[in-house]
Amino acid sequence: MAHFTKATSVKDWLNQRLAIEKVEKVMASEYWIPKNINFLWAMGMVLAITFALLLVSGIFLLMYYQPDVKDAFYSVNYTIMRDVDFGWLWRHVHGVAASVVFLVIYIHMFTGIYYGSYKKGREMIWISGMLLFVTFSAEAFSGYMLPWGQMSYWAGMVITNIFSLGGLHLDGLVEWIRGDYVPAQAFLGRFFMLHVLLLPLVIIGLIGLHFAALRIPHVNNQDGEEIDFNAEAKKYLAGDKAGSKVIRFANDFMAKDLMVVGVYLIFFFYLVFFQYGFALDAVNFDPADGLKTPAHIYPEWYFLWSYEILRPFSINIGLIAFGFAQVIFVLLPWLDRSPNAVPASRRGLFSVWFWLLLIDMIVLTAMGKLPPEGAFSTIGLVAAVAFIVLWIALPFITKYEKKV
Amino acid sequence: MHNSSRRGFMGKAFGAVAGVGAVGSLIAMKKTWDPLPSVKAAGFTTLDMTIYPEGELVTEKLRGKPIFVLKKTAAMVAKQTESQKARDVVVGDSHFMLAIGLCTHLGCIPAYIPAEEGFLCACHGGKFNWAGEVTKVPPPRAFDIPPFKIEGTTLVLGEAGPEYKAMKDSGITL
Hints:
Chain A contains 16 helices and two strands. Chain A is an all-alpha fold. Chain A has two domains: 33-297, Cytochrome Bc1 Complex, Chain C (Up-down Bundle); 304-404, no CATH class. Chain A has a two-stranded antiparallel ribbon. Chain B has a four-stranded antiparallel beta sheet, with no helix packed on it. A four-stranded antiparallel beta sheet of chain B has the order 6-7-8-9, with no helix packed on it. A three-stranded antiparallel beta sheet of chain B has the order 1-11-10. Chain B is an alpha+beta fold. Chain B folds into two domains: 2-34; 41-169, 3-layer Sandwich (Rieske Iron-sulfur Protein). Chain B is 31% helix and 27% strand. Classes of the chains: A mainly alpha, B alpha+beta. Chain A binds chain B through residues 154, 157-158, 161-162, 166-167, 169, 175-182, 184, 186, 190, 290-297, 310-311, 313-316, 318, 371-373, 377, and chain B through 30, 33-36, 39, 42, 59, 61, 63-66, 105-111, 121-125, 137-140, 174.
């Protein structure tokens, strides 16, 4: 057994048993962050805070929600919204956060793409991040089922039908996933379980992996400069704070991080209190009806780009294109053949590629929301083909990129 | 050496026990997600085919899914092509379009547009004609036909009669 002495203070008592000072150093005060970064580097913390908001609001909703096809709709729209004091607050926070979290995820993702933060030892950060994106998507979808309105029901119908994989006709698999021929009680029960337990557990585990993946390669910086973190840390600790290229994670970097979080939270609660409508689809305020498809159905905005890649093609080609769109981002570290880990602006054609991809995804998002008619159909088709072409072109563009 | 081989044996023994347990649990988990017997046994629907008005779409229900029943007008019957005739359900001397009312793309319910004598799916823009055939993609095939059995002037849905089996065998429906 280790040797323990009489504690001189509470801190000393804890130190002997939990090494709290050592832990604090490793996790915060001697975890080094480059100075050469901007507000986009705060998006990780913004996401962590948004996840916390989702968790807390979700806990309060969970106390009154009834996962039963007869009661679910009224437990949300009557009990939570009208009976429970401040029930509306938790629902609006949960709904708005579920939408905004994807906006921040996309900003976080495109920041990573722009600055080449998936290269040179940072591949695991990218992969764990993409796994988080997939799990968040599943979490968003399963949560969307719970109010059991018309959009819940028909989104559930359409998305689970994707698993019949078109020409393969795996109807048995679809019925197995639903536990019924159509979305019904078994379906609602299992998606409720996924939403409140299994998927959040996976998300928390993946967040741990995402942070751990950051530990050894450290955070990237605005110029993609390779920093010798040990040497810079020594310089900092020796008192040359101005000369060192790094600062402490806490409290120095955290102070800036939380400043951005503060601005974000003001924006976030502005949405919660005054502009929550965008996160609550009007059609979903009709109870689920298996015998009536709403006139116009579309997914939430953050799924529109991949939905628009599915839509313009015949079913099998559409599903292949959709599958391509779902996995291709994960392969980015290997599709980008250039060794340059610098901002896109200094990478020639890659810079063009980056902005084209961003614009293409915005066009796909806009077309996905519009009815599939006339010119919109054509623009959607062109944008969907362009998305695939861009990704196929990436290895060729980057292979011939000049070393900077 | 002696120790390590003993440890190796213990490792294999544990592996065997854990393997059996893992396979068993996976089977139990898979079966727990299966549709319940009460769902599987969900009944049959019997339709009286004499009451349907001509040229008007009526939606019935079988196992939670909508079933389209359209009594064809004389004009429709007269202009039927061979492939449309093959999908025809004839009860007495009335001709019907009978179909599971879900788009074969991803399962939305297409709306009947009487003026166009056809169906439009709002989800992804697919179109079907009054005989249930696709006239605009993405749907990959005509409407599926539910299992049916003709008994005089009534139709039992959920039970496969000879006419249905013939359609299934010839690939007219899945």
